[in-house]
Amino acid sequence: MQKTMAQEVRSATPLNPTIPSITDVLPSFRLDGHVTIVTGAAGGLAHTLSQALVSQGSELALMDLSLPSLENVKTELELFQKQNNIPPVKISLWACDISNADEVEMVVKSIPSSHKGIVPQKLVHTAGFCQNINAHEYDAEKAQKLVNVNLLGSLYICQSMARQLLARRTRRKSISEHIDESGEAMPQFPEASFVLIGSMSGLIVNTPQPQCAYNMSKAGVIHLVKSLAAEWAKFGIRVNAISPGYIATALTKKVISQSQEGAALQKEWTNRIPLGRMAEPKEFIGSMLYLLSRSASSYTTGENMVVDGGYVCW
Ligand SMILES: NC(=O)c1ccc[n+]([C@@H]2O[C@H](COP(=O)([O-])OP(=O)(O)OC[C@H]3O[C@@H](n4cnc5c(N)ncnc54)[C@H](O)[C@@H]3O)[C@@H](O)[C@H]2O)c1
């Protein structure tokens, strides 16, 4: 039976205009129009996370110590995009020692020039390394180097990105502002989300391998995240950590499979993991996308998401 004009109009009108639309209730994890800075981009974890980022439409500014290793990553990412029919996105490469504050500042300042002026508001900071040395034998220079990279490097990259955002305020009047208690106008960057890779080692002491400097550096990263989150909430910049347990990256898989010692180590580790296995890098994509997404995690800041197969429960 044909509908009358009045019936047509009624069926096109929402029954209750106060009912939210699907986009109001379901978060989006798309990152189109954004540039995400990925540090440690030539590493095992970053490789997988970068694949997820381009799949969500984000342009990438990849940072690591050497350009040749980044060029390999870019080639592989382009192949990944092509094979999966993902529209190509701009990927820029930056050689940079994360423990050198001046270098970090220079690179972060330069990134917009390679991305049509877009200032990065998303960070996935994975640069870091571990050393297994007995505490009583730890050489001071080695310990300082590790802390400079893992902990101070985390501060430098966040500082430089925040400075770029705040500098943009003076150039662009369109940036929204909110008035704080003292009546001062604060620029707001509700899309800004910095995700730092910590480690369960910032919460527990790994065994049997000795790694005191690494453990203290990651404990520092977790507390740095809370400090920055508290301080920069007034700008709308969210800062969070993901703390992985043991990850089976290409590198760790090789170490484990090529020596008896490696196999024994893996057995010892997995015995202590309630889920009974090491993580795959792809198992960190969900937490990363959640933390980067404005609509999913707008009320999450200063959080340390532990993704460790339950290791810290025991
Ligand atoms: N693999 C694990 O089991 C595990 C567990 C918990 C946490 N994490 C953390 O996850 C992150 C990534 O780990 P991964 O397994 O991919 O390691 P990885 O060694 O494969 O990658 C780390 C990357 O950081 C880069 N890097 C090191 N020093 C740097 C510096 N001074 N400046 C710039 N870049 C530098 C390296 O070149 C490398 O490409 C690290 O922060 C690590 O501590 C790893």
Automatic annotation (TrEMBL):
Q: Which UniProt keywords apply?
A: NADP, Oxidoreductase
Which PANTHER family does this one have?
Answer: BENZIL REDUCTASE, DEHYDROGENASE ARBD, PUTATIVE-RELATED
Q: A GO molecular function for this record?
A: oxidoreductase activity, acting on the CH-OH group of donors, NAD or NADP as acceptor
Keyword Oxidoreductase set for record = yes
Provenance organism: Kluyveromyces lactis (strain ATCC 8585 / CBS 2359 / DSM 70799 / NBRC 1267 / NRRL Y-1140 / WM37)
Checking Gene3D superfamilies in the record gives: NAD(P)-binding Rossmann-like Domain (3.40.50.720)
Q: What is this protein called?
A: KLLA0A11352p
Pfam families cross-referenced by the UniProt entry: adh_short, adh_short_C2
User: What protein family is recorded?
Assistant: Belongs to the short-chain dehydrogenases/reductases (SDR) family.
